[in-house]
Amino acid sequence: MIVSHFNPDLAGSTVTQTTTVRDVAELARLTIADSDIDKVTKEFNQTLALFEALTMVDTNGVNPMVNPCTESQPLRTDRVETLVDRAGLMQNAPASEQNYFLVPRVID
Amino acid sequence: MRWEKVMGLEVHLQLATQSKIFSSSSTTFGADPNNHTNPLDMALPGTLPVLNHEAVTKAIIFGLGVGAEIGKISRFDRKNYFYPDLPKGYQISQFFEPIVKEGVFDVPMPDGSIFPVRILRAHLEEDAGKSVHDAIPDQTGIDLNRAGTPLLEVVTEPDFRTADQVVAYLKALHALVTYLGISDGNMAEGSMRCDVNLSLRLEGEEEYGIRTELKNINSFRFIERAIYVEAERQQDILESGGEVTQETRLFDPDADETRSMRSKEVANDYRYFPDPDLLPVVVDDTTIERIRAELPELPAVKRARFTDQLGLSQYDASLLTQDRATAEFFEAVSARCNNPKSAANWILGDVSANLNKSGTTLNESPLVAETLADLIIRIDDGTLSSKMAKTVFDALWDGSSDVDEIIEQKGLKQVSDTGALETIVNDLIANNPAQVEQYRAADEGKQKKLIGFFVGQAMKASKGQANPQMLNQLLKEKLS
Amino acid sequence: MTSSFQTVASLRSKLANRDVSSVELTRDALARISDLNPELNAVISSSEENAMKAATQADEAREKGNDSPLLGIPMLHKDIFCTQGLPTTCASKMLANFVAPYDATVVRRLDDAGMITLGKSNMDEFAMGSSNETSYFGACKNPWDTSRVPGGSSGGSASAVAAGLAPLATGTDTGGSIRQPAALCGITGLKPTYGRVSRYGMIAFASSMDQAGPMARTAEDCALVLEAMAGADPLDSTCADQSVPRYSSHLTDTIEGMRVGVPKEFFSSDLNSDVAAAIEASLAELEGMGAKLVDVSLPSTSLGVSTYYIIAPAEASANLSRYDGVRYGYRCENPVDLQDLYLRSRSEGFGDEVKRRILVGAFTLSAASYDEYFMKAQQVRRLIAQEYDDVLSQVDVIAGPSAPNTAFALNDSSKSITDMYMEDVFTIGANLAGLPAMSIPAGLVGGLPVGMQLIGRRFGEVDILKLAHQFQQRTTWHNLTPTLEERH
Lengths: 108, 480, 488
Prior knowledge:
Chain B has helices at 53-65, 163-180, 220-239, 285-293, 299-308, 314-320, 324-337, 340-358, 369-380, 386-397, 403-410, 418-431, 433-441, 444-461, 468-479, and strands at residues 3-14, 51-52, 73-74, 77-80, 90-93, 103-108, 114-126, 130-132, 139-143, 150-156, 192-202, 212-217, 248-252, 257-260, 273-274, 281-282.
């Protein structure tokens, strides 16, 4: 991923447009009704304004914190085990047939 | 204008573990839909990934196999996109810090030269499930058996310029992973899948052109063609003044064309970020050294030994070392019969032809190394002619296991007893005075043709079992 | 009703002495739920039949000599924990009909300890909220004043324990979701160290901060229950492989000379002055008990809110991608194609606050914003965690308010979204740093409870529990109960 270096001058002036909000909604597979878009964009910008406080913090050379755990990843023994049978796993399926989950035909 | 192809490869190898990378479901291929699944594979709420030790070990083995640096601390990230065969809506992969870093992999080319390929990285990730389009009318069925199978994605630098190099690399990679026992490398079952990043540039140019990604080419057969077809397409675009679109394309062997996979292209911003459910994978030096000590002899080392110590040609050595089973079979045969060249000829000749015909592998064939060696021993000690040897070989292939027994049963023993041959030759000369006269009168050139008559008659008399070299020798002596 | 407001510890001895049976306790609790829940809406679903069966078994087990401390004691699970065979909704339309085929580790362990699951408690949808108003099943009410919120997201659990529907409920805390409702409802709630309790089967909100914990009447009860909940789990990689102390046997360890840090930033203008006065009185009480108060500073406190509201939605945006209408959960009617299936199932299945956070999360993770927002927030998180570590190297425990105010009114339209986020300003730090923290009753302001927060070192649950327990030996705030009209 090409990621730009953080620029504090730009951050303070962040105002997200409705088009950006629509793009993000598309990424997240959410629809925003035309009647809601202005309200959603306004709330979105309110939230982003809350984040502006961070632009003032000097984080040069600070190692990002992903998780408070300081341990390393435990490793599982390579052993096959079934925790729940297929009937149980598929009991909540909204649409299934012949043990497949069904979705509308996908054309590639 | 001459165009040069610039290619980099991304190969996905399914690692041969018993269970999946983050769950304890079986990885066995070909089960009933959704039967090799656990709550995690279905992405049921509240489920969490736990990393399979064996997947990590196999990734390290691979890294050491290509002489790469092993990431002492590697991490897992989430790659976010929606697709029905991706149950969590993100794939767990290693984007920022892979377990295998840079290395160089020496690829033997058919002409015996070595083509070094720079490995950029290899990272662990989980496979997706399968979308099945032909099981239920108007619907796509989702089968998550494959979801979570451990993959090692091996990424090269854009070092390839010809399709031959690509094919040689893939063959060598296949050989390596089967040697190392980390993947079965079965392309038909998708254990080894290849994406080619291809761009064109004018020869002499430094800068790379815009590339396309050819997805999922799953047989050696199609790779050359796919590359050719896509390069032609790009060349047409560039020569007509157009610009290549950076996109993912699929090779369609039936239509003999590549086409855009638009569905995968919709606004792809994968939003990679470190997976908070998984902690850093720490690999210490002791572990690395222990794994290194247990590595089998690698194909390149074997290849060198086969040419230098056993006297094989580069070509034969390359072929024999393409997979570990063949190489080990060869070594067992060669060691027992003490005739590496003959062992190589048999394996690359009749054995390989029979395997191709039956579509099986060495491990599945009834032939064992010891009996093939015995067969070669019986040729070398003059018991069998090459024609007889073929008969014995066929019997071995049909399930017989004792060479001497076959020789006995079929009465295939070659007559190499001088006394018995002498009797036959003496009888011949006595019974065919006219032909003997004619032979003796002829010049050397004619004699060579005329002797055929005597050989034929002698063979008939010995019911085909006379040792041809000895027979020739004897006839020349007695006729002169 | 004799058992309504009793503690786990007292029920334990009553059960052991055969003063009461589990069947009686369970029947009473179920009756109280059916009586009071219509008013409180603290419980989303109850499981009478299973609970009575389990209670009968518990009584039988006791007759056979089983004397495990939690045997036969009824409780509620926040509806974020998967319970095999019972609905698990996460208070969302998305999972309104979901029945998990497995138990969360927390559920399994408390089951194994012999506890009786009465049902599932209300919460903010997917634990996103500080008022319980985002629940698809409607807002839960605060038993101290039913026109007010119980806090959130574990509002149902807090309301239920405060109203005596159960002596104990589980909660989860990502940014204060155990402590803030515990404070607003006048009960004791403990968020353990990140990694102390398994997250397996607990529906994820923000994976690097989510932590399950007990909500009860006393610190002693929290200690007893945490002993059963905590410990390594092969199904959760982030769950620590650390032995679990017998918390309940350390409650009376001396606190003489214990250093209690009081961060000045916790007494800023964000804090209601009456609440501040109550907390100061409680701090004085701690001093009277032999603890030594130390002025400390956590200058990044206010940055915590910004940091949290970047990281939590980002993680959530990925965690909630699995709700796509394919394998389980809400699916829209007659999808015309795959994209329609995704878009409508998700847009119709999620509530507004959840969608708001998914949007923000997807935005801060996008390639163009990653460095500026997500990476930056992870770096500031490190700085905040270091700040806490530094302070906790000088003091044993940090003390302050759990929430800036007492319970606020339901449907308060004057509160903006970001005002609501400020509810978490004092609690978020412990989540960002992964520290154990609890809220204990510390006064009443205008008839509404105030909670004092105690934050410990990593895996320092013993410190905060013993301080809380001994505080509760000297104060009666935790014994106060709201007045509720019983209808029968």
